[in-house]
Each structure stands twice: as structure tokens, then as C-alpha cells.
Amino acid sequence: MIRRVLPHGMGRGLLTRRPGTRRGGFSLDWDGKVSEIKKKIKSILPGRSCDLLQDTSHLPPEHSDVVIVGGGVLGLSVAYWLKKLESRRGAIRVLVVERDHTYSQASTGLSVGGICQQFSLPENIQLSLFSASFLRNINEYLAVVDAPPLDLRFNPSGYLLLASEKDAAAMESDVKVQRQEGAKVSLMSPDQLRNKFPWINTEGVALASYGMEDEGWFDPWCLLQGLRRKVQSLGVLFCQGEVTRFVSSSQRMLTTDDKAVVLKRIHEVHVKMDRSLEYQPVECAIVINAAGAWSAQIAALAGIGEGPPGTLQGTKLPVEPRKRYVYVWHCPQGPGLETPLVADTSGAYFRREGLGSNYLGGRSPTEQEEPDPANLEVDHDFFQDKVWPHLALRVPAFETLKVQSAWAGYYDYNTFDQNGVVGPHPLVVNMYFATGFSGHGLQQAPGVGRAVAEMVLKGRFQTIDLSPFLFTRFYLGEKIQENNII
Amino acid sequence: MAAPWASLRLVAPVWNGRIRGIHRLGGAVAPEGNQKKKRTILQFLTNYFYDVEALRDYLLQREMYKVHEKNRSYTWLEKQHGPYGAGAFFILKQGGAVKFRDKEWIRPDKYGHFSQEFWNFCEVPVEAVDASDCDINYEGLDNLLRLKELQSLSLQRCSHVDDWCLSRLYPLADSLQELSLAGCPRVSERGLACLHHLQNLRRLDISDLPAVSNPGLTQILVEEMLPNCEVVGVDWAEGLKSGPEEQPQDTASPVPA
Lengths: 486, 257
Fold this sequence. Notes:
The complex is a heterodimer.
Chain A: H1 2-11, H2 30-44, E1 63-69, H3 73-85, E2 94-98, E3 114-115, H4 122-136, H5 138-141, E4 159-163, H6 168-181, E5 185-188, H7 190-196, E6 207-211, E7 216-217, H8 220-233, E8 237-254, E9 260-273, E10 279-289, H9 295-301, E11 319-330, E12 341-343, E13 348-353, E14 358-363, H10 380-394, E15 402-414, E16 421-424, E17 431-435, H11 441-458, H12 472-476
Helix pairs in contact in A: 3-8, 3-11, 4-11
Chain B: H1 3-11, H2 19-28, H3 34-48, H4 50-70, H5 75-94, E1 97-100, E2 105-106, E3 126-130, H6 141-144, E4 152-154, H7 163-166, E5 178-180, H8 189-192, E6 203-205, H9 215-225, E7 230-232
Parallel strand pairs in B: 3-4, 4-5, 5-6, 6-7
Antiparallel strand pairs in B: 1-2, 1-3
């Protein structure tokens, strides 16, 4: 129609523009226009947020009942159990905010993937036992219609912890507690150890504890992907962004002893998009801090730790990232197929990887040797000087080994007592923690997720009582020390 | 079920009740694409309707529940008749066969009935169990592990026996001499690694395990692990192709981060 009209105008000799031209060039992108129009029409239909003026599909929703900061195994586990335990289907809206959708620095993907019940605290043992039964029945818990079953690649080879003379008594009492809780652990003398595993050098070993069932290692990526898939099918929303601000309100109240206390409640979470200044304020009722190694930053955003030191307001969340190295090596004459994950008296550990005489392992550095957690660069000299000598002493076959590769990952290290922080904060009443597990978060994730979901939905721990893991212990100074940290 | 009519009914709500659209679609569905179409129609429905998804989920959960029911632990029977009686009853109920020491094999017939006379001699230890094609899983092994003097166990083609179950077999280490895992779809080399507790094993059958990634290498490693045992089932040369130009199936590469 326009084209038919124009020749008249052009016939007058005026300087008119041809149809379809604009200053600077223009090409009619018909397919793009059609798909944009389709998108706008879809957004008007009920059930979708109306983005007529701008496209907001990449932004999180404006309201969400629960916002989980951190999309690793702990965050997804909490999301899963919230959806599993909610009173009716679709009762609560859960949003998981994850800064890095490639999980390049997340502790879950970089983990060695072990699970064991040989702890000294009964709560840790119960968490690991529940997690083992969760992993065993993972295709019932995380079954999604039409999706293939998950293959966790679980190696049920167990953990072998070695103790020197001075630690032998502690190990015996720990094994007693473990057996009471239901873990199947057996104690072995150096002779029995030599009989069973002839490749071990038992010099300096007074006692060993060997987990017979429900212990071993598995593929953490598979668990993460399985949880993600199931949680998406249950209706949890995902967002890729960074939490930059909490908007909260405070209320001054009096305790029963007439002391003034300021209670804070978070109302909004500002989620900033990747590589842009755009942010979305998400109104929320509950915030769950499952940010792993960066949990302290999220806690600081909520104002936890701002106050005179020594008071409850001034108690910071003592979780910091600590870098740990894992090395992969090849040793053709090394221990055979039956090798458990061996944790030496010196703290060095190793396990088999695959069928081809490859092993992986490492060692936790002492406080003085702690590497700088600013990046995930690997220090190969650490293996030469601090890990290899201990391995070669314990397993003589490891004197001739060849390192194939190595990687580094973060522990969300709890500097207070190396155990997790679970439950609400006493002053910021709607922030719940699920972090600080210092290297055993992956193996306790299902149990902790369930505990936090129970706390959020029912107000108390129902199945496993994790009250010793509450935040208040940092203020009260009650350390619950876990001896068997690898 | 006539596919075009079925698809008419099922597709109607998605097209917002526009009858014109239904007729158009009905004509387009060809009968020979029936099977594939049926599967994708079901998937399509599951993706669009919560009800269909919930129904399919319920059916899936019911299947799993049936297996759990079969694998209950018979603690009351154990109190009444002792561990051997309870274990034997469990196996016979699942469809397997049991042999008490110095007696004949007891098998259920094709209707699932078996002779009840074994209750009379249930102090006699059970010597051999043939649980082929049964639905035994991790919980059901509770009943099996009560048979302390079991010498021969056959778990051929059991679809629910996986690596976790194998890690549970160590209480039978003193007596078990023969074990067969042929054809179990969920057993992999990781489960075979925990058979090293069974030091009295003399014959192990690991043929036809589809989940084992490298059968030849696994056989060698298992033979090394159990020196007194005859490991049957895989030709060790399997995977080694003749000819210099083809590489032998080699070691698993280190797992990247």
C-alpha cells in the first residue's frame, strides 16, 4: 500500500525517503519481529509475568517465599526438601539464586566425593547414615517421569582411618559411638591390617578403623544434576545472579529480663544480573544462606557481625574459604581393586580412581601452610614436599608414581570448630544457615537439607536434632569439636 | 486404540478448544507413526498437565512400592522358626530355590506354590540358594544374610541387585564358596571391588554384566583381588583386538574436575 502511494510523492520531485530506509541503514528482520511479537502475546496470557514494555524473562520473579542463596548441593538439597515436606503441592515458592551457572568454583563439583560415617559426633554420624540411605535410594527420591535413572557411580569400598599411638584411645571411643549410632565400623590391629592389605606399611600405626558398609565415594556432579532436575520438575525457580543487598526492617523488643534487643527481618533481596548493573528486588519471607565458601559475605550483607565484639550483634559468621589441593597420579604397581579411601596418621589421604591404576588424594595443610584462597591455582610443590613423603611411607609402592593432573577447590571452613552451621540466626530472624561444613558438606547435604526444611516449615528439628549446630554457639563459645576431619 | 481419535481427544485442551485445529491435526496423524507418536504424546501431555504427570508419578511410585513389599524383613518368622526357616521362606516366596544341608532342592512351581514341609526341619542350615530372576534388593538381603552357613549363592539376572547389595555380603565371608552374578544389569566393577571380604570364595561368575565398563580388565583385577578363587565368565582377551593398528581398550582416564 505504501509502495503504491509513494510514486506519486516521488513524482513531485521532493526529496523523500524510500520506504524501509532509515538513517544509518535498516534491514527488515521479519523472523525476529515475528518471534518478538509471539513472545509479547505469550506474556499477556495468564500465568506469565507481563513483559510488554521490556523483556524480563532473565530476571527472577518479584516475589518469592523462600530465597536460597547458593545453588550448590546444600542449596539444592534444601530446595528439594522444602518442596517434599510442604503441606500441599505448590504451597511455597522457592527461588534458588546461583552466581555462577557453570559451577566453576563451587565446592560441590571439585569435591573428592567421599562419604563416611566415621565421625566423633553422633549428629554427624546420623547425618551421614541418612545421606547414605538417600544415595542408595536416589532413584526413588529423585525420580522424574520420562528421565533416565541416575548413575551415581558409587564405590562401596569404605574408609580406612589409621591412628598412631596417641590417637588410638580416641579412635576406640569414637568407634564405640559410631557403632551405637548404627554405623558398621570394625577396628583392626596392625597385624590384621597387614593381612588384609599387604601393600600397607604399618609402621607407626597402632589402630585402624575400617568402614564396612555405606561408606565410599561417588560422583558429586551426578548428585547435583539429579537434584537440579528433580527440583526443577517440582517447580523451584532458578536465577543466575548475585545477591548484592538485603533490605530489612528492625524492631526493638524487650527480652524477659527487660533487656533491649533489636530483631531484624529481611524483606527484599536484591539480585544483580551477570555483567550488568540491572538488579531485581525480590520480596521474600525467608532467606537461606547456602553460599558455601562465600557465606560470610552474605551474612555481612545482612548485618550479622556489625556490633561491638563479644556481643551477639558483633558475632560474625566464622566461615571462610580455604583452598585444598587434590592430585591425580598413576602408579602401575599400586594397591589393587579393594583399596578403600585410606586416611593416614599424618592427614594425607588417597583413593583409587577407575580401573587403570590411577589414584587421587591430597592432604590438608596445617594452619601455617594455608595457601592463599584468592584463586584456585595449584601448588605442585606442595605435593612434592608435603604429601608424597607421607604417601610413600605408608604405601611403599607409591615411591614410583607419576602425577597426571591436579585441581584445587574451596572448603567452606568453619574456623570456630570445623562443623556446620545450621538453623536460624537469633537476631536476623528470617535468615537460616546451611553452610560451614569444612569439607564434609557434600556427604551431609541430604540430611542437612531435610533439617533446614523442617526448621523452616515446622519450626524445630524433627528427624535429626541439630541444635548443637545452631549459630548461637559462636556467641556462647560452645565448641563442638569434630576430631576426624580429613 | 485408534490413534487419530485418541489424539483428537487428548490434544483438544491445548488448542484452546478450537475445533478447527483438532480436525486439522486429526487428519495429519498417520497410523504407522503410532508407536513413536504415542510415546511423544504421553510425554507431551506429561509436560503440559500436572494431572498426567502426577498420575504417572504415582504409577512409578507404586511399582517401586511393590518391590519394597516383596523385600520386607521377616522378623516374626525368624523368632518363630529360626533364621534358616525365615530365610528359606523369603527365597521361596520370591520365586527362588533353596537347598538345606543333606536334603533336596525345594523349588516353587509355576504358580508360586512350594511344599511347606521345610518348616519341620528348619534347624538344618541352608546350604545353597538359587535366587535367579528374583526381585531381591538391598532390604531383602536382610533375610538372606541370616543364613550364616550358606555355601552357594546364585543371584543371576536379579534386576535390583546393585553395588550397594554387594557391599553387604561380607557377613557370609566364612562360609560362602560359590557366587554367581551373571546377567545382573546394575552390578558394576565398583561393587565387585567389595567382594574381597569373601576370602573363602572358590568360584565367582561375573559373565554378562552390562554395567561393567571394561570386562577384561575387571576380570584381571578381580582375579588379583581373590587369588584362591576361580573367576569365570569373561574371556580376558575380550577388548584386546588383534592387529597392530587397533589399540587395546585401555585404562580409564583420570576423572577431570
